[in-house]
Fold:
Amino acid sequence: MEADKEDQLRIEVVNGAKAIFTKGLVEAGEGNVSIRIPKKDELFITPSFNQYTTLVKNEIVHMKFDGTPLSSGKLPSTEYRLHVAIYEARPKANCVIHTHSPFATMLSVVQKKIPVIMEEQIVFIGGSVDIAEFGKAHTEEIGEKALEVMGMKNGVLLANHGVLVCARSMGHVVKLAELIEKLARIYWGALQIGEPILISEEDCQRFKKHFDSLFATYVKKRKR
Ligand SMILES: [Zn+2]
Structure:
C-alpha cells in the first residue's frame, strides 16, 4: 500500500478516536476504533490503553485479521477480535467503534434493549439496539454473539460491557456511536417519566428503505 494512502487511513482512525473522546463516549484507556484496509485481511486499530488526548497516527496499530502485527511499537487493543469478526462477516463495513459510553452501558448492565423510539434510529441503525449476551471480552466468542444479535443492524449493546457499532465510513460510525448513547439517554429519561411510546411497525418499514440504501452493512441474500 502506498505510504500516503496508509497515512490517510491512520489519520482517519485518529480523527474518529478523538471525536468519540471529545463527545464523552470513552475515557482514557478504554474503547477502540478501527478501519479496514481495502482489499486485504488487515486493519488499522487504536492501541491498547489508548490515550486519546495525545494519540498520533504513528501509534495506530497495523495488523492482520488473524492477529499478526504488521507495525512495531504499540500493541493493538485487546478487543480487536470484535472488530475482525465484523470485517470478516460484513464486506460493506469499513469502520468499527467500541465504547463503554455511560447511558448505553447502564442499559447493558440491566440488559435492557433500546426499542425503536425514534425515526433516526431506523435510518442509521436499522431498528432496535438489542443485547448480545455476556461473552468473555477478549475472545472471538463475543464477536460471534454480537453479530448474531445485530442481525441486519449496525449496532448492538454488549451485555454488562458497552456498545459496538459498524458502518461504511468513519463519519458514519462516529455518528452511530454517538446516536446509540443519545438514544440510551433519551430512553432512560423517558422511562423515568412514563411509558415510552414506540414507533409503529408500519413507520419502521417506511424508514427501512433509507437504511438499506444509505447505511446498511449487512450482507443481502442473493435472490435465486
Ligand atoms: Zn470494552
About this structure: The mean pLDDT is 93. The helical segments are 3-22, 80-89, 102-109, 119-124, 140-150, 170-193, 201-215.
